[in-house]
C-alpha cells in the first residue's frame, strides 16, 4: 500500500505566508493503483532529467530534482517571477506490500512517472479446499 506523508507541509505554508514567498512546499503528485502496479506522477516542469535523483531506502522513496534560476543578464528587468527555483524533494513511505526492487521511472514532458509493482507475497492467492480428511493447500 502507498502512504503519503509530509509532516512539515503546514509549517511551510505558514512560513510562506509570513515571508510572502510564492514557492510551493512540495512538488505536486498524483498516485493510483492500476492492476498489479502503483503509478505515481510528479509534476516537475523545467527540470532537466539528469538533475532528478530517485532513491529507495528502507521502504522510503525519495525524489529530488533541481530547477536552476534563470541567468541574470544586464538590461533584463524581472516583472513577475512566480516559477520556483532551487532543489525540490518529496518522500513517500512505501508499504511492505510493494516490490521496491523492480521500480521503474520515466521523465517526459515535465512529468516524472514512477511505477512500483505489487510484491508477489501481497497478491491474492487461491486456496484449494480438500474433501474428507485432507487438509487445505495453498497455491501461490
Describe the structure.
- Residues 20-132 form the SHSP domain.
- Belongs to the small heat shock protein (HSP20) family.
- It holds the Pfam family HSP20.
- InterPro entries: A-crystallin/Hsp20_dom, HSP20-like_chaperone, Small_HSP.
- It comes from Nocardiopsis endophytica.
- The chain is mostly beta strands.
- It is 8% helix and 40% strand.
- It is built from one helix and ten strands.
- It has one helix spanning 9-19; strands at residues 2-4, 29-34, 37-43, 53-57, 60-67, 86-94, 104-108, 111-117, 126-128, 137-139.
- The strands form three sheets. Strands 1-6-5-4 form a four-stranded antiparallel beta sheet, with no helix packed on it. The protein has a four-stranded antiparallel beta sheet with strand order 2-3-8-7, with no helix packed on it. Strands 9-10 form a two-stranded antiparallel sheet.
- Strand 9 and strand 10 (137-139) form a beta hairpin.
- The longest helix is centred in the N-terminal third of the chain and has 11 residues, at 9-19.
- It is elongated.
